[in-house]
Each structure stands twice: as structure tokens, then as C-alpha cells.
Amino acid sequence: MTFKMRSLCFVSTLLCTLSFAFVPARADDAKAFQFALQNGLQVVVIPDHRAPVVTQMLWFRVGSVDDTPGVSGLAHFFEHMMFRGTKLVPGDQFSQTIARNGGQDNAFTSYDYTAFYEQIAKDRMRLAMNLEADRLANLDLSDANVRTERDVVLEERRMRTDNDPQALAVEQWRAALYLSHPYGRPVIGWADEIRRIGRTEARDFFAKHYAPNNAILVVAGDVTKDDVRIAAEAEYGKVPPRELAPRSEFAQPPRLAETRMTIINPEVRVPLFYRAYRVASYTDARPGEAEGLETLAQLLGGDATATLYRKLVVERKLATSAGASYDGYNRDAGQFTVYATPRPGVSLKTLETAIDAILKEAITRAPAPADLERAKTQLIASATYQRDSQFALASAYGQALAIGLTVEDVEEWPDRIQAVSGNAVRDAAQNFLKAKEAVTGYLTPRPQ
Questions:
Q1: How confident is the model over 433-445, as pLDDT tens digits?
Q2: What is the set of active-site residues?
Q3: Entry pTM
Q4: Do domains 2-238 and 259-366+421-444 have the same CATH topology?
């Protein structure tokens, strides 16, 4: 996932998951309301009356998996292009107008969706909607704008990926993990393919994907559903629907054996051990499997009390950092990642052997009841605390709907985590942490 930071994007780093945690909204909390406009725009309203502000998020069901073959990076490119202006709001006046009215705006792109958001005083909500609707209908796709933003994206790639040995390594490992599936392409795109983006490619992509009938509007804040309905119908309702490009359904090519890849780069300062498993996601897992993987990741690497950090960093002094993560909020396969950086003098092979022993224990034994309860409590508490952020609250619903889940999936998630048993965690490890579904990577400044 990448975030637009004015003219550049803030690219996700290796050790960050690429998704937002679900945020609970139980019966005694703010209820989410849903409706749709006649032009096909889905709307979700989450009242939150603690402060007179709103967060508006417009999610499009288009991400890097939808990039035109041979022109990777188009979805991410349009995260930028949407800030290039219209005839009514030229140049960077969109962001300047939001800022002058006391708000802030940004955007991000992932494999399955692109989202734009504004956080602003509630009496300026209609203004934010008007600006979004204007660029949805009237975006300036001139040759000059396309060339300028294409060069910005290429410079971003040079700065954030090509000049970062770790980012380059992860890009290679991910490509090996997903084989021919488009999850193996970088969201930002390959440099040679970004250079192919021209006005024709831009206009075609915009016409096929940027329409109200391909979007989800999420508004969280000091509003009622009627407030949002009236404003949305007045601003977004006037944007006509368009014929959309059907989303492709990609096969998951079978992996026949583990991939091992050592990348030697003299620019590396700290060696890295990295292993990623292709696993089930929340959209394709059987009941309880994704929650088992989520809990397993928390047990293994959620914080400084987790198994990997405790055993490798604190007890055995083999690593300076270690952790695990589960990225399961995807339309297709998810990813389970384990990583560690060795202490000076410790080889990556020694570190890998120690990690394998920890993973073998997770596969053969259910976690201790006290450890399991602590992990589940941490997951639920973390999601509960995020309810203090309107952004996190809106993101939880928007992301779920964008990948094909439901409002009920968001609201029931804490209960499903609470129901995870020790055997379910062990089963998740047994079923998904398989060598043939993994890419193991070494990143080092010299041969090991």
C-alpha cells in the first residue's frame, strides 16, 4: 500500500502489514448504516459524535491487480493523477482548498483498491464531497499532467525502492511467492512499464474504473445517516455511472517447492532473514482459519512478549529484532511473514535454524492457554483502541467492503477472535506454514 504525500508517495516498508486492522462496532457502539445512490455509489455512515469533525473516504474497487498487462503501476499512478486538478479546481487547488478550511487529505493504493480521504469540520463535509465529485467527473487528463505525474512516480520509485536494498529484495521475494498472479507485481509498478503510461492509457483506465458505480463512500463522524444521504445525493448523485471493465479472476498457480533466494548487495548495512508463506485470506479462508492465522502471528511476533522476540532477542541473543505478521485482507491469497535481523557475528543460517525450531513447535503444539488469552486480548484491545481514530474506523469498513466482505464481518470480528482455540492456532500453523508455499530470503552484503 502506498500513501500520497503531496507529490510523492510514502511506500510501505518491509515490516509493516499492508492492511488496516478491523475495528469492532458492537451493538452498544455506533451503528453503521448502509444505502446506495441511484448511480450505484455505495454509502456507509458511521456516526461518531465525540467531536464536530468528519472523515470522508472514497474507496474504488481498483488496485494494482487491475493494471493493464504491460503497464504496471496504473492504479498507483491514478492515486497521484486525482490530485492534478480539474477546470474548476486546477492544479493543486484541491488540497489547498481542504487545508484552507482546516482539513487534511491524502490517498493510498493497494493491490485490490485505491482510496482517497478528507478529514474536516462537519460543516465542511459538503465542500469535501463537492471537490471529490468534481474530480471524479472532470479530472484533467491532459498530456502535460500525465507526463508530469508519470515522472513524479518514476522519481518516487527511484527514491523509495530502487535506492533501498531492503525494498528491492522484498519486491523480488514477493514476485517469487506469487508466481504469475498480479500480487507479485509491485503496487508502484516496474520502472520500464511506468514509462509506458501515456494519455491514451490514462484516459482508458480512468473511464473503465473511476465511476460512482465502482466506489464505496464511507463517512465517519459527527453526522447522521440523513445528513450524509442528503449531501451525497446532492454532490455525488449528479455524477453518472459508467460501463466498467470486469475485474479479472486470477488463478493461484500451484507452488511445487520452496523458493530460496539470497540477494547480495554491497549497500546492505544489516543482514536480514525473511520468509513469506502464501496462505488463505479473510475472503477465501474457511470459517476460523484467517482468525487462527491472525492469532498465530500475534503469538509469534506481535510485540516484545511474543515468542520470536523473546526467544531470539532476549533469551538466546541471536537477533536484534524479530517478528511475524499476517496480511489477510485481500481478494485472493494472503501472506504470512516471519523476519529477523541477526546480531553481529550470527549467521543467517544459524538464525534460520532457530526460527525453524520455533515454527516447528507452533505446528506440533497448541499454545499455552495463558499465552493464547494474552494474544487474543491484545488483538481485540488494539482494534478497540483504534476506534478512537475516525480514520481507522472508516478504514475498517471501507477496506472490508472493497475486498468483498461485509459490514457484519467488521462488526463480528472481535467475537470471532475471542472464539479462536489453541487447537485452531495449531491447525492454522499445520495447514499453512508449509515449505512448498514459502519463499525464504537472505539479504546480505556478502556471501553467506
A1: 999 999 999 999 9
A2: 79
A3: 0.91
A4: yes
